[in-house]
Structures are given as structure tokens and as C-alpha cells.
Specification:
about 425 residues; two-stranded antiparallel ribbon; 7-stranded mixed sheet; about 15% strand; 17 strands
């Protein structure tokens, strides 16, 4: 099914954005006396009422520790927690929910893989391939591992549009490559990387592949089983769920060989002062009391996104990104950074003669939230000769009217009119 067939004539015919916005209470918030326009979705997404209500219900009716306690609330909490695990597995198309490990977020997930799979399988002279697109969370843990093991990091370059140079990637692969760890979507540029192709090429050399899916899961379909993915990590707060919770998919044949990530309660089978035996996965990888309410909230968020239908979300956001791109391109002295043919949700830009912090501040005065900075992705910005950009990032509750308002304010900023009238119009969904 093509994007055009999903969109209809006007780009949003089949997507009820007006009704969807009512599900997000914070979108009625006033900032500096104006309606909030939340365009910082790459940093975190807002939460629908169903997620907030589900977490409240947990604390009111189910609150207990899980996997222990012979009482009703313990059973309710365990069922809710494990149901959330099943939803996470289904969302990524894992073959089993037992391939899903709850973590605090993508950062912890990558560290988990580095401290278990990495320490077990990567040694002196071995190579880890990263790309120039990576978030710091997918760079620093591998640097730490290399310092311990004398392994080496090699970097897949990008072209001037921000796309991975796949021919260069193929040349970097060798028998020394033990792991390829790449972002599915760049958090700084919005570039979509060709994950199925990356995995297939890596496997030809016996390398495993970890995918940082933090920026992808709310915008794209994921099929870890169909892609033969080894590791896939994501954060709940990037997909309309709570902070402090995420999950990492680990292929079962790999997971069963991994040692525990941390020690403590919940992950043990038996403990004496002489030795400890551990439970099987996934419990072996989850020491201590988990973020139970947050996991339940994540399950509710995944339910919400699933009901909206990923095809419709992709189509609507694709149209909105194209609309926003055209709106920004016509602003004099504005340069878009990252113009890959395959991208989603994110627009990074600079305006000649203005600091990015100044632009962010002026937009905030108009109630428009964007990110101005290095986005925890300094290497890719430096690839373009920059230390920071302004980064509006879109979600399915954003509208063309919000994009128009942002563009109007940016035009005023560019004209350097310090006392311009920041009128916030009545938004019309179209």
C-alpha cells in the first residue's frame, strides 16, 4: 500500500488528528500565555490520558511487587507486568515475549549488551562498527568496552545528505567485525537507515547487529524476527509512554548464553554464601524490583499506538514532514541540515546570523517547544561543520497549522524584529 493511497487527496483525510489531540491533556497547556505547540518529540513524546489513567489504576488497584507474594495484589501486578512484556514483544514482532528485557531506556539497553554480550564476545583486535549518525549513548558504552578489551571502533560515514554510505559500510566489514551497532533513525537528522540490509550484510561476516530504535518505534514499523535482528532497543517515553522504562529485544539463541547484567533479587534461583544459581531469561537479566507501573504504562501506550494503525501514522507523519520541509525551505538564510531521501519526523536547521539558542528562546516566547543544541550527537553535527542546530521534531498529534505558526515566527526572527507581535492563531486541522 502506497503512502498516497493512505493519505487520500489532502494528506490527512484518513487520520483524525483533531480527535487524537483531545487524548493528550498537556496539549491544552498555555506557555507564555499561548497555546503549547510541542515540537520537541525527539526528546520525549507527550502522554495520552489512557496511559496516565492506566498507571493511576495500577497504583489504586494492583500495586504490589511482582513474581512473589501469595496474595491477590501480587498476582494482579505480575499479570499486568508480564502483559506489558507481551505487548512490547508483539510491537517489535519478536517470536516470544521472553526475548524482551525491561530496562530503564535505550541507554541502559545498550550498556546491558555491552557489559554482557560485549565482554563475552569482543576482545583484542576485534572491531565494532558504528555510524556517524549515532547518539552518544551508542558511542560511549562501546568506547568503554574497547578501553577494557583493546577492541577497535570503526565508523560508517554518511554523505552530504546525511545518508549512510553503504559501499563504505561493506568495505569496513570483515572477519574481525564482531558487532554492528547503528541507529534506526538519527535523532539529529531524522535519517532512516536501511536496517534489513545492514543486518543481512553483517551476518555474512558472522557479526551481530544491535539497533538503537529510540527514534524509530513511534514512527516506523519494526520486525525483529523478519529482519533476523540480534538486538533492538527502545525507550518508552519516545513512544507516548512514561520515562524510566524501555525494553531491549535479544534473540533467544543469544540471550540464553548471556551472563546476568546485575545481581540482586528477582533474578536468582538459589543463593548461598558459596554460590548463586540464576533463573532463566528474561528474569535473569532483571535484578531487583522493576519499574512496574511504568511498564504497565508502556503497555498502554503501545496499545494506543497500535489502535491508531501504524500505516496511517506513517502516512500522516510523512505528509506532515514534507509540508514542514517545504515551509522551512522558503525562509531566507535558513539551511536544513540532513536531507536524506529516507527520513522521518525531524528537521534540523540553522539560520544565518542568529544563534540557535536565540532562535529556541524566541520560539518558546511564542509557546513553541523545540530543541536547540547538539542533541547528544556531536559527531554527526561536526560532520556538517556545526556544534548545534535547532531541531523541531514531529508526532502524529502535530498539525499543519502548528507548522505554519512555527514558520511565521521564524520569518519574523529572520527579519530581526525584536518586538514583533506574536499572535497565536486558532489552529485549523487540514
Amino acid at each position: 500500500m502506497t503512502i498516497n493511497s493512505l493519505l487520500g487527496v489532502n494528506g490527512s483525510e484518513y487520520f483524525p488528528v483533531r480527535e487524537i489531540r483531545r487524548d493528550f491533556p498537556i496539549l491544552s497547556e498555555k506557555i507564555n500565555g499561548r497555546d503549547l505547540i510541542w515540537l520537541d518529540n525527539a526528546a520525549t513524546t507527550q502522554k495520552p490520558s489512557c496511559v496516565l489513567d492506566r498507571m493511576s489504576y495500577y497504583y489504586l488497584h494492583e500495586n504490589s511487587n511482582v513474581h512473589r507474594g501469595a496474595h491477590t495484589l501480587a498476582a494482579r501486578a505480575t499479570d499486568a507486568y508480564e502483559d506489558a512484556r507481551k505487548k512490547a514483544g508483539k510491537f517489535l514482532h519478536a517470536s516470544s515475549s521472553e526475548e524482551m528485557i525491561f530496562v530503564r531506556g535505550t541507554t541502559e539497553a545498550i550498556n546491558l549488551v555491552a557489559r554482557t554480550f560485549g565482554k563475552l564476545n569482543i576482545g583484542e583486535g576485534d572491531e565494532i562498527l558504528l555510524s556517524e549518525l549515532e547518539h552518544h549513548a551508542n558511542i560511549v558504552p562501546w568506547q568503554m568496552l574497547c578501553q577494557e578489551t583493546d577492541a577497535r571502533i570503526k565508523v560508517i560515514p554518511v554523505d552530504d545528505n546525511g545518508q549512510l554510505q553503504m559501499e563504505a559500510y561493506e568495505k569496513l566489514l570483515s572477519g574481525r567485525t564482531k558487532l554492528v551497532s547503528v541507529a534506526h533513525v538519527s535523532n539529529a537528522l531524522g535519517t532512516i537507515t536501511p536496517i534489513p540490509e545492514i543486518i543481512k550484510m553483517a551476518h555474512q561476516y558472522g557479526a551481530k547487529v544491535l539497533v538503537d530504535g529510540a527514534q524509530a518505534v513511534s514512527h516506523l514499523k519494526v520486525d525483529v524476527t523478519g529482519w533476523d535482528c540480534d538486538f533492538y532497543a527502545f525507550s518508552g517515553h519516545k513512544v507516548y509512554g512514561p520515562t524510566g522504562i524501555g525494553a531491549v529485544y535479544i534473540k533467544s539463541e543469544i540471550l540464553k548464553e548471556l551472563p546476568p547484567y546485575q545481581g540482586g533479587g528477582n533474578m536468582i534461583s538459589d543463593v548461598t554464601f558459596d554460590k548463586t544459581s540464576y533463573q532463566g531469561p528474561p528474569k535473569r537479566m532483571e535484578a531487583g524490583t522493576g519499574s512496574i507501573a511504568d511498564a504497565v504504562g508502556l503497555g498502554a501506550a503501545l496499545d494506543y499506538v497500535t489502535k491508531l494503525n501504524s500505516d496511517r501514522i506513517i502516512a500522516y507523519e510523512h505528509d506532515l514532514l514534507n509540508y514542514a520541509t517545504e515551509a522551512l525551505k522558503i525562509i531566507p538564510d535558513l539551511s536544513l541540515i540532513g536531507t536524506a531521501e529516507e527520513k522521518t519526523s525531524i528537521l534540523s536547521f540553522i539560520i544565518k546570523g542568529f544563534s540557535n539558542e536565540e532562535i529556541g528562546k524566541k520560539l518558546n516566547e511564542a509557546g513553541i517547544a523545540v530543541r536547540a543544541g547538539h542533541h547528544c550527537a556531536q559527531p554527526i553535527l561536526r560532520r556538517f561543520g556545526l556544534e548545534s542546530t535547532v531541531r523541531p521534531s514531529l508526532a502524529f498529534y502535530n498539525t499543519r497549522a502548528e507548522v505554519d505558526e512555527m514558520a511565521r515566527i521564524l520569518k519574523r526572527i529572520r527579519k530581526n524584529q525584536s518586538n514583533f507581535y506574536l499572535h497565536n492563531p486558532l489552529f485549523v486541522v487540514y
